[in-house]
Amino acid sequence: MAELLRSLQDSQLVARFQRRCGLFPAPDEGSRENGAGPAEGAARAPGLGQLPAANGKGGGGPANGLRRVAAPQLVMYIGQVAKDILKWPRPLSPPVVKLEKRVIDEYGMPSTHAMAATVISFTLLLSTMDRYQYPFALGLLMAVVFSTLVCLSRLYTGMHTVLDVLGGILVTAVLIVLTYPAWTLIDRLDSASPLFPVCVIVVPFLLCYNYPVSDCYSPTRADTTTILAAGAGVTLGFWINHFFQLASVPTEALPVIQNIPPLTTNMLVLGLTKFAVGIVLILLVRQLVQNLSLQVLYSCFKVVTRNKEARRRLEIEVPYKFVTYTSVGLCATTFVPMLHRFLGLL
Q1: pTM attached to this predicted model
Q2: How remote is the C-alpha of 281 from its chain's centroid?
């Protein structure tokens, strides 16, 4: 088993896949990159047989809405934290060609892209199979194809080993199985108590603020904060829509079995218009809240304005990211539909 795991972690396996896809290194690329992860600067990150032991000191609204937010949040947080606790290196370059420079400083195990693709596609499948009339086999095929393509893309870009990808899929599958019995309860939490929105904000913020400390900076904590904050904002939006009756309530008992309507030109134009209106409002809110939150934090901590290095400090990065993307999630689920209704797009 140990030999199998080592072979799945081998960078040469990823390189062979890239060559089969027609991706080859540039002539002068070989000696310039190593890209094994954040630990590479001082010493090469350990291999599978030398990996350090895991420890804690590493570096509603629409029906089924909450489960489609809570499940990805849980999966992504566990995946992101696991990276900085396990500290497994990304594939070596050479022989692997690295196509994404931003995430080279992150660790590799597990692949959170593989986890996200798996949890989103299969949560969507399990949440809609009792609400819409479509062949289950077709839905299953689409979920498998989507998640497989994303997983293969992580090998093609040279960002993960085969073991990273398989580990991400396995962890996600286990979490889906363990949490599936509680999905119905999760959907009903948005109206359980007026204190629910407080928990939705406080718990994710504390998880982000107490994110495992890494030996050197990587964007993992910032990405985790973005994910949890957006999910908190969406969940809060669902609660506001339900509490203030901003969303239409089905007249029939749930679940309501519906046919998926055929795509027409009018539906396509309407959908694109709603998307354009929504994305413009979201981008405006994001920019406004980000600028305001940074100004307040810079003032509180006596930091020079536009100091990009200061953004990486825990007391600045987590609050500004959390406030910004909570606002984005809230805007997407509450204010965008209100604007659509005002413009007669609903």
Answers
A1: 0.74
A2: 22
Task: Provide the b/e sequence for 308-345 (b: ≥16 CB within 10 Å).
Answer: eebbeeeebbbbbbbbbbbbbbbbbbbbbbebbeeeee
Q: Which two tokens stand for residue 291?
A: 């600028």
Quick check: 134 pLDDT over 70? Answer: yes
CB atoms within 10 A of CB 274: 17
Tokens 């498998």 locate to 144
> How many Å apart are CA 233 and CA 253, to the nearest integer?
27
pLDDT tens for residues 55-71? 333 333 444 455 567 77
Known catalytic residues? 113, 160
3-state secondary structure of 272: helix
Domain definitions of the chain by residue range? 10-22+54-188, 192-245+263-346
Residue 133's DSSP bridge partners are 259
List the structure tokens of 198: 């407080």
